[in-house]
Amino acid sequence: MYFKLNFNKNLVLMYAISLLQGMVFYGSVSTLYRQAVGVTLFQITLMESLSMVLTIVLEIPWGILADKIGYKRTFVICSFLFFVSKLVFWRADSFADFLTERILLAAVISGLSGVDTSILYLSAKGKDTQRIFGFFNTMSVAGLFLASGMYSLFIGKDYRMAGLLTAVSYGIAAFLSLWLTEVREETKETERKNSWQIFCQTLPELFGRRNVTAFLVSMALVSEVYQMTTVVLNQPQFQKCGATDKQIGLLFLLLTICEMTGRLSARITQKISETAMFLGAFLIPGICCLILAGTNSLAISAFAVMLIQVSFSLLQPLQTEMQNRMVVPGHRAAMLSVYAVFMDGTAAVVDLLFGKAADFHLPLAMLLGTLACTLGLFLYCRGSRKKNTI
């Protein structure tokens, strides 16, 4: 299957860009990188929350603009902004500097929201898209694995060098984006609407279609549990269990390998059903967070975090597929941006709660993860019982 897909230029370029943008050389020590210049855990999550709020503000304008100027042009602009954000991160040495990086990142995330998946979806003509999304995510993880391996073997504690190499990788990715071919969605003349009309129509419909709203919020909850436990809080958790920087780097490599399981998402979904996949995505991280809250064992902590990584990696292509099924042809980016607003709004609140809890007592933040997964499971099950199920 993937051998055939290699003849599609856009897919090849998108896979290469995903690989390069996955090469975050400081990934295994991103929290420690910030803490080294005096940034606290709460400040880190505060930056995440502020970034989410800005992402929400920019989501709809970016989505509307993307439908007007084209997906390729939007992707190119965001890719170069991504490159600039990594240059800022490389030289950052204060809370204000890192906040600037997060502000730039918010502009990038809101701009790419729905655009990257739209390019993949339309380039593949809507065929075998869950597998394509899974492979796209896997390439990003492969890049992270390579970068993390190089960090552990050659870079050591030189955080600045890791930041510089990351910026170089993102710069190459930005230039590759210039060679993408524009893709457009064919629509009947009678179906064409102004993107702003699509937004105004979609927003109230979401409030009316509670199953869709419940689905989006539930996905946001489990996504933030993943983000907090595998990116932000895992490093302090491992340190609490006595891990050294080198051990943390090696554990990050294992997490990266686990993330590659996203490529199996479509195959596993076919075997166990979409419903079973979603249920597992809430139950597994919920139980693992409970374990993390009560253990001081490095081995148990590492195993629990890896399970969370695997469950979310398998979920991500499926939830992306589900969101793409719910759009109006011709306005894919605008509608996906509307959906992202709900998810980002939830994430902004959850991030602050995690940060405050972590600064007070790390196990309390892990228990919050269990609570978030429980609430997400409740919302998903409630939404699935509605007549117009997802």
TrEMBL record:
Primary location recorded for the protein, binned into one broad class: membrane
Record-annotated membrane-spanning stretches: 12-29, 41-62, 74-91, 103-122, 134-155, 161-180, 275-293, 299-315, 336-354, 360-381
Entries under Gene3D superfamilies matching the protein: MFS general substrate transporter like domains
Pfam families per UniProt: MFS_1
Coiled-coil portions: none
Ranges of residues in domain Major facilitator superfamily (MFS) profile: 1-387
Entry superkingdom: Bacteria
Keyword Transport: yes
Subcellular location: Cell membrane
Annotated InterPro entries: MFS (IPR011701), MFS_DHA3_Transporter (IPR053160), MFS_dom (IPR020846), MFS_trans_sf (IPR036259)
Membrane topology: Multi-pass membrane protein
Keywords from the UniProt entry: Membrane, Transmembrane, Transmembrane helix, Transport
SUPFAM superfamilies cross-referenced by the UniProt entry: MFS general substrate transporter
Name this polypeptide is given: MFS transporter
Organism of provenance: Blautia hansenii
